[in-house]
Give the backbone structure.
Amino acid sequence: MERKHNINLLLLSVLLLVTAACSTTRNLPEDETLYVGVKNMEILNEDKTPARCPDLGRGGGCFVLSSQ
């Protein structure tokens, strides 16, 4: 009986800790929000010269990833 009581107490403690840890906005002022990421990012290359690739030795080369 004592063992079952200890398991129940442990489960209750874990439940209370998880519940208390979930409120991330409780102390946040009304006019503030949590950071949710960058919505739109634009990277400008004002230089207009192509980027140079370092000499990668044998079998080297460059590749460019483009989302256009």
In short: Residues 2-21 form the longest helix (20 residues). The chain has one helix and no strands.
